[in-house]
C-alpha cells in the first residue's frame, strides 16, 4: 500500500468533510433583520402588548432564518447539485439562486476548473522484473456535474485510485528501458486508460505527466558502470579509426618518395635537424633507416659541426 498516496487522499477527504456554502449575502441580510427586530422590539416595549411583540420577534427571526438557508450563491466556476426530497432536481449556478429549506438539499458543489492530482506507484515491478517508484501528475476537469455527483460517491478519490491502478498496469507492461526513454508514450497510454474509466463519471482527462522514475540504487550504479564502459569502448573505437586514417595518410605520403630518393634524403635531414636543434634532444633512428638513407654520415657531420661551433665562437 502506498503510504504517501493514502496520506494525500485522506488529507483531501478531510478538507471536504464540511462545506455548508452559506452565502455572505444571506448572512448579512439575516444579521440586518436580527438587529432591526431587536431595535423594534425595544421601541415597542410598553406601547404594544407583550404577546404581539413576541410574535413579531419570532416572525422576523423566522424570515431571517429562511433567507439565511434559502439564498445561495455559487461562484463562477461552481455548479450546485440540488436534490428535492432525495431526487435530483437540477443544477444551479453560477450566481445567486433560491432553494426550499428542509425540502431541498445541496449534497455537492462541483468545481468546473482544471484540477491537479498527484499520484504514484511505489515498488512496482516492470515487465523485466525491476522494482521502480514512479510519480506522476494528472490534469482533469468535470464536464458533466450531474454525472460526477450521481454516478460516483467521491469522484476526486475515485480518479486518484483509477490513476494509480492505471499507472501500475502500464508499468507492468513495459520494460525499464522503455519507461526511461519512452515517457511521452507512457503519458499518452495513461491518459487514454484513465479517460476511459472516468468518462462515465462526467470527467475528462486533459493530460498526464510522469514526474520522476526512481530505480534501486544498486541497479543505478550498475547502469552507470555500463554507461561508462560503453563510453570507453566508443573512445577506443574512435582512437582505432584515427590510427587507420593516420596510417592511410602515411601510406599516401610514402608513395611520393618511392621513386625520388633525393626528396627522401632531404626529408630525413630535415627531421634530423628538427630533432637535434633543441639542446639535450635525443633522436632514435631505426638502423634500417640509417643504412638506407645514409643517416650515419649525416648525423656524424652534424655532431662534428656542433662540436666545432663553440670553438669558433671562442675565437
CATH superfamily of the largest domain: Band 7 domain
Low-pLDDT residue spans: 3-7, 13-18, 311-315
Our measurement of the CA-to-CA distance between the termini, rounded to an integer number of angstroms, reads: 99 Å
Rg from alpha-carbon coordinates: 45 Å
Domains counted in the coordinates: how many?
3
Describe the structure.
The chain is α+β, with helices and mostly antiparallel strands. Helices cover 58% and strands 20% of the residues. The chain contains eleven helices and eight strands. Strands 3-2-5 form a three-stranded antiparallel sheet. It has a three-stranded antiparallel sheet with strand order 6-7-8. Strand 6 (115-125) and strand 7 (131-142) form a beta hairpin. It is rod-shaped.
TL;DR of this structure?
With 315 residues, the protein is of the alpha+beta class.
What's the structural blueprint in terms of helices and strands?
Elements: H1 3-14, H2 24-44, H3 50-70, E1 71-74, E2 78-84, E3 87-92, E4 95-98, E5 104-111, E6 115-125, E7 131-142, H4 145-150, H5 155-173, H6 176-181, H7 183-198, E8 203-214, H8 217-254, H9 261-276, H10 287-293, H11 295-314
Antiparallel strand pairs: 1-4, 2-3, 2-5, 6-7, 7-8
Please tag this protein with its features.
alpha+beta; Tetrahydropterin Synthase, Chain A; 3 domains; 3-stranded antiparallel sheet
Amino acid at each position: 500500500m502506498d503510504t504517501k498516496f493514502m496520506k494525500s487522499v485522506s488529507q483531501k477527504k478531510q478538507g471536504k468533510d464540511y462545506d455548508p456554502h452559506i452565502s455572505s449575502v444571506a448572512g448579512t441580510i439575516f444579521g440586518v433583520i436580527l438587529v432591526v427586530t431587536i431595535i423594534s422590539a425595544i421601541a415597542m416595549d410598553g406601547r404594544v402588548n407583550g404577546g404581539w411583540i413576541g410574535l413579531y420577534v419570532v416572525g422576523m427571526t423566522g424570515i431571517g432564518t429562511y433567507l439565511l438557508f434559502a439564498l445561495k450563491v455559487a461562484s463562477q466556476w461552481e455548479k450546485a447539485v440540488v436534490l428535492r426530497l432525495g431526487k435530483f432536481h437540477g443544477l444551479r449556478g453560477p450566481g445567486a439562486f433560491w432553494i426550499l429549506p428542509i425540502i431541498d438539499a445541496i449534497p455537492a458543489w462541483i468545481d468546473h476548473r482544471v484540477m491537479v492530482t498527484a499520484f504514484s506507484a511505489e515498488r512496482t515491478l516492470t515487465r523485466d522484473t525491476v522494482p521502480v517508484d514512479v510519480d506522476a501528475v494528472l490534469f482533469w476537469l468535470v464536464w458533466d456535474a450531474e454525472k460526477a455527483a450521481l454516478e460516483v460517491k467521491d469522484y476526486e478519490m475515485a480518479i486518484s485510485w483509477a490513476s494509480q491502478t492505471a499507472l501500475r498496469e502500464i508499468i507492468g507492461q513495459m520494460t525499464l528501458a522503455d519507461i526511461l526513454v519512452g515517457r511521452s508514450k507512457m503519458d499518452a497510454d495513461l491518459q487514454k486508460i484513465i479517460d476511459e474509466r472516468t468518462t462515465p463519471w462526467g470527467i475528462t482527462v486533459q493530460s498526464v505527466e510522469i514526474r520522476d522514475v526512481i530505480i534501486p540504487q544498486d541497479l543505478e550504479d550498475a547502469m552507470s558502470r555500463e554507461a561508462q564502459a560503453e563510453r570507453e569502448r566508443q573512445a577506443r573505437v574512435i582512437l582505432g579509426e584515427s590510427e587507420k586514417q593516420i596510417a592511410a595518410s602515411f601510406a599516401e605520403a610514402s608513395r611520393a618518395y618511392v621513386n625520388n630518393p633525393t626528396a627522401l634524403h632531404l626529408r630525413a635531414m630535415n627531421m634530423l635537424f628538427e630533432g637535434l636543434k633543441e639542446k639535450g634532444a635525443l633522436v632514435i633512428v631505426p638502423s634500417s633507416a640509417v643504412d638506407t638513407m645514409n643517416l650515419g654520415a649525416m648525423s656524424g657531420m652534424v655532431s662534428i659541426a656542433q662540436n666545432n661551433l663553440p670553438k669558433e665562437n671562442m675565437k
